[in-house]
Amino acid sequence: MSIEKTIEDCKIYLNQIKQYEPDPFYVNHYFSEFIDSVNRVLEGIFDEANRDFGLFIAEKISCEKFLEKAKSKNDLQAIKFSEWYLDKFNQEHKSRFPKAIKKICELKNKQNKLPKIKIMIRALDRYENDINQQIMVGLSNEKLRSKEELQIEINRQLPVFLEVINYKRSKNNEPSVNENQITTSAFIDIEDIFEIEIAYASEIYIPVLIRMVEESRKKIKELTSWS
Questions:
Q1: Which of 3, 9, 226, 191 is nearest to 101 (CA)?
Q2: Which residues pair with 118 in a beta bridge?
Q3: Per-residue pLDDT tens over the stretch 5-46
Q4: Pairing relation of β-strands 139-140 and 133-134?
Q5: Phi and psi of 21, rounded to 5°?
Q6: Whole-angstrom Cα distance, residue 56 to residue 29?
Q7: Is the separation of the CB atoms in 117 and 35 below 8 Å?
Q8: How far is the C-alpha of 188 from the C-alpha of 99, rounded, in Å?
Q9: Runs of H (alpha helix) within the chain
Q10: Which pTM was predicted?
Q11: Angle 14-37-55 from CA coordinates, rounded to 5°
């Protein structure tokens, strides 16, 4: 499957996440597919590099295996690409959401699992310092039992949520929130990064992924072109 098709799959899975959230069962399913697709795109970069640099790596490829093979063949251009890629990758993953997606990809690769999803109330229009509030909803086979139960729990938690978020917003001269301006979303924690909204982080990550592909291809072309 081409990298372009896999990126399109990422977009499809993102739309499915948005459609089904905050139901943890379906969000987990489509987020798992999203993360697998991200990993395939990143592997695809090195599949293309392996072909273009002529390293002939036969097994499943990774940045580490690519660099190891490049060093064993003393392919200086391939080594340069690996070093450039690692630097570029680190730069692209310094901010909070890309860093979280990177950590989730690593977890999925190593342990084939995702962090546990929690359902949280949030403001529809996000501000940087907004709070979110977790709500505990009854599940059946990891699925929401009913929208009615979800709404009951939202209504129960809403007064406290509105009081706290509006207090914080007033201190920052930000607009207040009313009961018609809130929603529920699926969130996760990963290591030391807390309350990552899955759909929002995934949406932010797709342009990062596209940049990694486009700039990697440019660098490969630069390093494999005869002057």
A1: 191
A2: 187
A3: 999 999 999 999 999 999 999 999 999 999 999 999 999 999
A4: unpaired
A5: -65, 150
A6: 35
A7: no
A8: 13
A9: 3-20, 24-53, 63-72, 76-92, 96-111, 147-171, 198-224
A10: 0.94
A11: 155
Question: In what order do the strands lie in the sheet containing 182-190?
Answer: 133-134, 118-123, 182-190, 193-197
Q: Which residue has the tokens 């929002």?
A: 200
Count, residues in the chain: 227
Q: Over the stretch 128-150, which tens digit does the pLDDT of each residue have?
A: 889 999 999 988 988 999 999 99
In one-letter notation, the amino acid at residue 161 is F
Q: What is the DSSP letter of 193?
A: E
DSSP string covering 149-179: HHHHHHHHHHHHHHHHHHHHHHHTT-----G
With 0-12 / 13-18 / 19 or more C-beta atoms within 10 angstroms meaning exposed / middle / buried, residue 158 is middle
Strands 182-190 and 143-144, by their bridges, are unpaired
Take residue 40 and report the two structure tokens written for it.
């395939």
Question: Which residues does 45 contact at the CB level (< 8 Å), separation at least 6?
Answer: 3, 85, 212, 213, 216, 217
Which tokens sit at 85?
């890629």
The two structure tokens encoding residue 12:
């499809």
Please return the burial class of 166, using the count of CB atoms within 10 Å of its CB with bins 0-12, 13-18 and 19+: middle
